[in-house]
Amino acid sequence: MIRKFISRVFSGKKPQAGNHEPAVIPVSTHGITRDRISSGSRRVCETLQSHGHKAFVVGGAVRDLLIGAEPKDFDIATDATPEEIRKHFRRARIIGRRFQIVHVMMGQETLEVTTFRGALAENTKKDEHGRVLHDNVFGSQAEDAARRDFTANALYYDPASEAVIDYHHGVGDLKQKTLRMIGEPRARYREDPVRLLRAVRLAAKLGLIIDPAASKPIREMAVYSKTSRQHAFSTKCSSC
Hints:
Blueprint: H1 2-10, E1 23-25, H2 27-30, H3 39-50, E2 55-58, H4 60-66, E3 75-78, H5 82-87, E4 92-95, E5 101-106, E6 109-115, H6 141-147, E7 155-158, E8 163-166, H7 170-175, E9 178-179, H8 185-191, H9 194-206, E10 209-210, H10 212-221, H11 226-234
Parallel strand pairs: 3-6, 9-10
Antiparallel strand pairs: 1-8, 2-3, 2-7, 4-5, 5-6, 7-8
Helix pairs in contact: 8-10
């Protein structure tokens, strides 16, 4: 069913570069009803939306539901700032140094709620290898989608409308069994060397083929810097 609906919606065509108008895929096409997501993630989205904010389940959970897998957790993306998120929930705390996120506790479930990230500025603080060190820049949903690593992870699910919102042809890439990087792969790997591991791990886990543009730099960049290697191999791959 998933393959049929992807073919109907996308017909194998990719959006033109710079096009930030997303594909909005209705539940009648993708079949993911709101009862498929956790009760905590529904409540967080409903609460934020009731206060006038945008709020979506994002990333790996949406990807996994589309391919028929069981998500291990449900992350939320919103236009609310960390301070605004925290004030709407009794059990919530702001964490993170490079980029602030909010942990919201709903019963036994802990939800990671992140404000939409903005585009990197010219003066964004990086180390000598290009790794981003400080990134508390907020932006639009389109900018947030562009900041995500792979197209299959730049997918948003709205529990209210039950629609999947796709800015970068992620659903089509899943249909084609392709793991494709958003943006120029070498630059994206330099921003966060953990993406080198994440690409390999996700491809193996999901049975995907890494797009040649993203796979070619992996071997050479895995050894381009001792500092980056140590960072990549000592950091938990929590977004896989």
